[in-house]
Amino acid sequence: DTGVSQDPRHKITKRGQNVTFRCDPISEHNRLYWYRQTLGQGPEFLTYFQNEAQLEKSRLLSDRFSAERPKGSFSTLEIQRTEQGDSAMYLCASSLAADNSPLHFGNGTRLTVT
Amino acid sequence: SQKIEQNSEALNIQEGKTATLTCNYTNYSPAYLQWYRQDPGRGPVFLLLIRENEKEKRKERLKVTFDTTLKQSLFHITASQPADSATYLCVPNQAGTALIFGKGTTLSVSS
């Protein structure tokens, strides 16, 4: 399978703990995106990379969130000091660098903060 | 601020009918508009892209229109089937900015 893969699929953590999610994009894709989705809402943009450069971050992304794409391949999203409001599906997508390129999504990591 | 409105959070139709989903946007000048399908517990899947200079685009039973004057896109599924039941997401695509998704319309097709 050469699609976007995300790990883990599910994560349950206690409030205050740190969590890290991984995304492996389609290998020839330059761009990598992170979105967050809660029930009944569309995916909410968090941040995106072109190769290893982080080009845009949502103003909604608090200081507790950090994302990296160290070698322009896989990416990690870390949430520090998790809060119950962080419970959501975290989606990763990748695309070619052209502005009209469609996004290819993984099936997400579902985070539950207790 | 940029805003996307997908009218009707839920749409229920009978098998065989045409489903029409509406997407309106404000404070955007998109060069493209994309439509995605999302099934429960899965990531969105790309369906169609339409450019600002295209009035209409078709793919099998799907048809999308794009009216930059009205700032609106319509998404049609003809001869709908229960397997078309899903949430459909509209994404106006402005060059140089990240893709922002609408809330989606959940379509239910009953047999």
Task: Please describe what this structure looks like.
- The complex is a heterodimer of chains A (114) and B (111).
- By secondary structure, chain A is mainly beta.
- Helices cover 0% and strands 49% of the residues of chain A.
- Chain B has 111 residues and is mainly β.
- The chains are: A mainly beta (114), B mainly beta (111).
- At the A-B interface, strand 5 and strand 10 of A face strand 4 and strand 5 of B.
Task: Please summarize what this structure is.
The complex is a heterodimer of chains A (114) and B (111). With 114 residues, chain A is mainly beta. Chain A has strands at 5-7, 10-13, 19-24, 31-37, 44-50, 53-57, 65-68, 75-79, 88-95, 104-105, 109-113.
Main β-sheet, spatial strand arrangement of chain B = 1-3-8-7-6
The helix/strand series of chain B, from N terminus to C terminus, equals EEEEEEEEEE
Averaged pLDDT of chain A: 94
Bulk shape of chain B = globular
What is the arithmetic mean of pLDDT of chain B? 92
Low-confidence stretches of chain B: none
Distance between the termini of chain B: 41 Å
Distance between the terminal alpha carbons of chain A, to the nearest Å?
33 Å
Class of secondary structure makeup of chain B: mainly beta
Describe the main β-sheet of chain B briefly.
Answer: 5 strands, antiparallel
Give the proportion of residues in helices of chain A. under 10%
Strand proportion of chain A, as a percent range, falls in: over 45%
The chain pair with the largest interface is: A-B, 22 and 25 residues
Largest sheet of chain A: 7 strands, mixed
Shape of chain A: globular
Number of helical segments with 4 or more residues of chain A: 0
Record field, number of beta strands of chain B:
10
Strand content of chain B: over 45%
